């Protein structure tokens, strides 16, 4: 075996998905509630529920206490706006980096480069469980193809990021995920990769993975009919404007796909300036009020407090409730703009279904 694994420094044992299921089991009531919230998400994506899917939460979760604190506030708010929006908390544990940086709580829960993945995966599952037990559905980006085995059961929505939408591995994975999957347009702004991804994930696939007992296995999927497009803007410009949404809708329709679009208010749509997220949201709400039926929801990067912080060498200096990845809007702003957006939607509905453009 002299020529094997020459660049592998060490191989360590990791708990199997089944072991974590036993350690952090989902009770029947929670499981029923997840079944229900998944169905609601699917109904919105497929146009059977007219409400907007609001995927709202931190860019990444790094502090379970702050995450739960945030989740409780979001749950309360979600009840006040449920007539117009169905809220799913953004619970992102895996961060795809442009070059390098902290890769999220699952890979590096101690945020010190020690990569205690066993601890991270257990922490993510237990935190997700606490959040869903509040009755708040959660959505994650799926990056590593094995990780869904540990947490898929708890999610109500998921996304494939701009950097991985073109990857066959991720398209195959999406074809077998239990939830609706949003594919982001590429970082360059290209939509075709995401549209191809939706078509690809619709098909059944076969691939190699790891089963609940940790054994290599062949997975054969049914295909996923709840995939959709996420407009996140591109290197050159945002793509949330009316003409962009219309072009995206026409492209989906031309391909015979459900015209289901989620607009990401952050990333290149906000030109990475968190303060601009509210103008993206305002534009989306206007478009919906003017009758654009393809917009099925939006994503908002929001945290307890606004902005972001670098991970300090001494973690005792971490500020509570502030993002360690992309800058987010704070809770007060989140609450204000979501409540206002709902008021606008209600008003438009009262005035006759939808407001007509000038
Ligand atoms: O959403 C988070 C980031 O935009 C994404 O992970 C890329 O981050 P980076 O460009 O800072 O690496
Ligand atoms: C990484 C993300 O987005 P994107 O893939 O659009 O860059 C994200 O939403 O956290």
From TrEMBL:
Signal peptide: none annotated. Its EC number is 2.5.1.54. It catalyses: D-erythrose 4-phosphate + phosphoenolpyruvate + H2O = 7-phospho-2-dehydro-3-deoxy-D-arabino-heptonate + phosphate. GO terms for molecular function: 3-deoxy-7-phosphoheptulonate synthase activity. It is an enzyme of class 2 (transferase). Residues 39-337 form the DAHP synthetase I/KDSA domain. The keyword Transferase applies. Gene3D superfamilies: Aldolase class I. It holds the Pfam family DAHP_synth_1. The keyword Transferase applies. One of its GO terms (biological process) is aromatic amino acid family biosynthetic process. One of its GO terms (cellular component) is cytoplasm. Keywords: Amino-acid biosynthesis, Aromatic amino acid biosynthesis, Transferase. Belongs to the class-I DAHP synthase family. This is 3-deoxy-7-phosphoheptulonate synthase.
């Amino acid at each position: 075996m002299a020529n094997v694994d020459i660049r592998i420094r060490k191989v360590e044992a990791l708990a199997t998905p089944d072991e974590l299921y036993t350690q952090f089991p989902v009770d029947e009531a929670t499981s029923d509630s997840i079944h229900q919230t998944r169905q609601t998400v699917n109904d919105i994506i497929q146009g059977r529920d007219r409400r907007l899917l609001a995927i709202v939460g931190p860019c990444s979760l790094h502090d379970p206490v702050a995450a739960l604190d945030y989740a409780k506030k979001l749950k309360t708010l979600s009840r006040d706006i449920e007539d117009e929006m169905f809220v799913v908390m953004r619970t992102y544990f895996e961060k795809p980096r442009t070059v390098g940086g902290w890769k999220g709580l699952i890979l590096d829960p101690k945020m010190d480069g020690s990569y205690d993945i066993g601890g991270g995966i257990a922490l993510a599952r237990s935190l997700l469980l606490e959040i869903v037990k509040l009755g708040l559905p959660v959505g994650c980006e799926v990056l590593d193809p094995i990780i869904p085995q540990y947490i898929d059961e708890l999610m109500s929505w998921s996304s494939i990021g701009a950097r991985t939408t073109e990857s066959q591995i991720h398209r195959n994975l999406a074809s077998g995920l239990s939830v609706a999957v949003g594919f982001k347009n590429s970082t360059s702004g290209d939509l075709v990769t995401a549209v191809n991804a939706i078509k690809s994930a619709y098909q059944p696939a076969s691939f190699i993975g790891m089963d609940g007992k940790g054994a290599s296995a062949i997975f054969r999927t049914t295909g996923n009919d709840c995939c959709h497009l996420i407009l996140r803007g591109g290197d050159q410009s945002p793509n949330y404007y009316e003409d962009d949404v219309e072009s995206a809708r026409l492209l989906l329709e031309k391909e015979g796909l459900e015209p289901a679009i989620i607009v990401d208010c952050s990333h290149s749509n906000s030109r990475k300036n968190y303060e601009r997220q509210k103008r993206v949201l305002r534009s989306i709400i206007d478009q919906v009020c003017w009758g654009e039926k393809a917009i099925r929801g939006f994503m908002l990067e929001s945290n307890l407090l606004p902005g972001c912080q670098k991970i300090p060498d001494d973690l005792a200096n971490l500020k509570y409730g502030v993002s360690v990845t992309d800058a987010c809007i704070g809770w007060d702003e989140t609450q204000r703009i979501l409540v206002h957006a709902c008021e606008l939607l209600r008003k438009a509905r009262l005035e006759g279904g939808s407001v007509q453009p000038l």
